[in-house]
Amino acid sequence: MDAGDSAEKVFAPNVEVQQSAHVKSLDEYKTLYQKSIDEPVAFWGEILQDFHLEKQPRPNKSLEFNFNCDDGPIGVKWFQGATTNVCYNVLDRIVKEKGKGDKIAFYWEGNDIGDDSKITYSELLVEVCKFANVLKDVGVKRGDRVAIYMPMIIELVVAMLACARIGAIHSIVFGGFSADSLAGRMVDGQCSVVVTADGVYRGSKLLKLKEVVDNAITLADKKGLKVHTVIAVRHLGPGAGQTPEAPAQSAKRPCYDLETTMVEGRDHWWHDKMATASDQCEPEWMDAEDPLFILYTSGSTGTPKGVVHTQIGYMLYTATTFKYSFDFHDDHVYWCTADIGWITGHSYVVYGPMANGATSVLFEGVPTYPDPGRCWQITDKYNVSILYTAPTLIRTLMKFGDEPIKKYSRQSLRVLGTVGEPINPEAWLFYYKSIGDSRCPIVDTFWQTETGGHTITSLPGATPMKPGSATLPFFGIDPVILNDDGKILKGECEGSLAFRRPWPGMMRTVYGDHERFERTYFKTFPGFYRTGDGCRRDKDGYLWVTGRIDDMFNVSGHLLSTAEIESAVVELPEVAEAAAVAYPHKVKGQCCYCFVTLVQGVTYSEEIITKIKQHVRQRIGAHAQPDYLQNSPSLPKTRSGKIMRRVLRKVAQNSRDLGDISTMADPGVVEELFKNRPKIS
Ligand code: PRX
Questions:
Q1: Lowest-confidence region among 40-49, 149-158, 572-581, 635-644
Q2: How far is the C-alpha of 452 from the C-alpha of 78, rounded, in Å?
Q3: Ligand 1, closest atom to CA 559?
Q4: How many helices (H) and strands (E) does the chain have?
Q5: Which of 279-293, 481-495, 631-645 comes out lowest in average pLDDT?
Q6: Ligand 1 center to residue 51 CA distance, Å?
Q7: Residue 612: which H helix or E strand, with range?
Q8: Mind listing the pLDDT tens digit for each residue in 576-597?
Q9: Is the C-beta atom of 419 inside 6 A of ligand 1?
Q10: Domains of the chain as residue ranges with CATH
Q11: Does ligand 1 have an atom closer than 6 angstroms to the CB of 391?
């Protein structure tokens, strides 16, 4: 069977998984789902009882919302009046109330084989309390923002939970972002404290994180932000990893000797500060709707948006989606390959799994280093039961065929998950057959930084799967498909995916810019949260997310904005104008194809191509670098001067199916564009 004819094939859930699942059939799912829609407050309130609240919500105040700009400010509030502490719930509650102090919270697997460690819930609690005291010691208070720029190490989890413990708001920036991007995020959040590490190896590549932080601080300083404290983990420096408590661990670590410059008075080593910190720290009791963290995501106008998530709703939603979407049970070992710097890592490496007292693998390296069997070596080493990853990784591994996979047993695998972009049926089948031995259900989870957790997903024991479809809504999610006029389409249809009622995990605002929140997500279709994705519903009511329908695209599961790339490119004095579009890519799903108009007198050359690519890397990060550039002395525009991206997408793909071009100011541009296409192998 090839990928083509499998697209409509239905795969039943594995019977063994089904028998012990939290939700065992589609009917059971439908009953629970209906309750979550009909009585949301009762549904979520019941689940909330398992959590520690210092104060209970006020009666009749459990849900207030407005999704319609005409009716006043957009807002969502769950469980007002309640107070809690998320750190307490994912640590103290697991240790003291659930009695799981000795359970492993994380198996840490380093970049190099043999470099590993582990930490229990009790041990993690001690580290978090200590670091919470370190933060207090350097002046961090409730409501302050703390920037975190770290590799995938246990200290990153410690840093974020320490913020949560004292009511500080963490703003994590993925370690692949450039100094410019880091600075922009630090300035937007007014973060005067930064937590980082000296460096990290990802595969054979060394990233000097502290150096990036230093550069970012210089840039931020020019914009008026004074960073008074940097705390750095010595991860690769001389003596890294050597603690009196863990001599065995230090013996296994490869010997690194990265030297790092520290600024007197401003920079501190993590281990120095921790050495004298008390391990007792009372949690700060936070209001239900106080911010928990800010996480930046691409915005269609170019500047990233600081997505704000709050306390109780986010905790409840990530905990519940984690339990049901992956059908998590206490004896499972769970592994999510996402970096904590993205929302997938926030929700499904840290908060969701820990709220369930799960044992997780935290992997620092890259899946193909030192060889393409690395994921399966790790799977066997820790007996991973649930694996959560992205289609881009699956496609990368497909290139190496079955051999590196079959070398390992993978018998522990039970459920497989995917996230980040639509999964093509060919990759789905490879995941299902070659990786999961046709035994493990695949959950295709559609969600966004903004949604906090899964919104459309199958449940392993309940939902028959169709490769490429995220299937059905999660509890509390009420999806609609709208036409361009905002009218709800019924039955089989295709249009814009929107949600018509609030769920606990949704974002509450854009940091410092509530108007942007309203405009981006609620203005186009009053009364609905607009996802920005296209979606088709089939005859069985299954949802097929078809990809972004705004000026964003998904590279290796990471959202990028065309405007952000364009504004970086046009900063170069040689460039007059730029237009970025998405282009299909075998491994990354999509990549960036950028048309550039150079200023008069500048010649298009290899040198300028390299310069543009490097500039985008420097301004945003390596993942945003255009794969293809095209010299375009003119761009196709409407008479009012708007660039016709639709036409550019077709040119990039060498398709003459241009549609209606009657509004184009100068149709002669088109031929020239086709003539100038670069050779794409
Ligand atoms: O286009 C959708 C795609 O990823 C976008 C959200 O990106 P981001 O906020 O970076 O979060 C990624 C991780 C949650 C969505 O608007 N997307 C995510 N998951 C899927 C998906 N598209 C199709 N199927 C999915 N399972």
A1: 635-644
A2: 14
A3: 10
A4: 23, 31
A5: 631-645
A6: 29
A7: helix 606-619
A8: 999 999 999 999 999 999 999 9
A9: yes
A10: 86-296 (3.40.50.12780), 556-676 (3.30.300.30)
A11: no
